[in-house]
Amino acid sequence: MNAPAIPGYTHDDSALPASPVTAEDLEKLKATVLFGPDDEAALRTAGEVLNGQIEQVLDVWYGFVGSHPHLLAYFSTPSGEPITDYLDRVRSRFGQWIVDTCTRPYDERWLAYQQEIALRHTAEKKNKIDRADSVPHIPLRYLIAFVYPISATIRPFLTAGGHSDEQVEAMFQAWFKSVTLQVRLWSQPYAKSAW
Ligand code: HEM
């Protein structure tokens, strides 16, 4: 039986426009963040360890957002009412993103969906896919600041597979580098001429 489709998840949609970031740009960014084949291998292992813990990871992240009104505001109406349906739909795509970060090849299709995720944080596409009546734009400063909590909070989950401290550290470093790399890619539509 096929897994149920995730609402608004269009990674494999053939109509997805190509990213303005080229494969060559990506290679340079990977080199800049020291992301290499060992990190790819560590992420594959992380994917196996995190599989089965995705809902618990999302509970931590949603708990973090929900306990900070200035962050919850981006999942809320302009008057500040959280939109449950929007939170739920984004949550299922967020869960898939954890899997994709660990298991997908970082190829041109991945780059194209990276650009789509970036745009969904900006006025160009935020709210559109879920028809949400929310505020129009998430400031870049919060995207960058999120690299830390999204990285630090994953660490305890990486220890659940019974791997050595050294292997857990390798998984953590690979995850941290990947999140840094992705937020760099997502900064493109925010700072086109400065990118
Ligand atoms: C959407 C990850 C920063 C609010 C998403 C999605 C992912 C994601 C995976 C779903 C993408 C898809 O549609 O498939 C991240 C990561 C961040 C980050 C890894 C930084 C490291 C933030 C911040 C906020 C935020 C700081 C504000 C509190 C949202 C909202 C959506 C979203 C509201 C839904 C956008 C839409 O209308 O489609 N994010 N995010 N994100 N994120 Fe983020």
Automatic annotation (TrEMBL):
Upper lineage: Bacteria, Bacillati, Actinomycetota, Actinomycetes, Pseudonocardiales
Origin species: Amycolatopsis albidoflavus
Chain ranges of the Globin-sensor domain: 23-193
The protein, known as: Protoglobin domain-containing protein
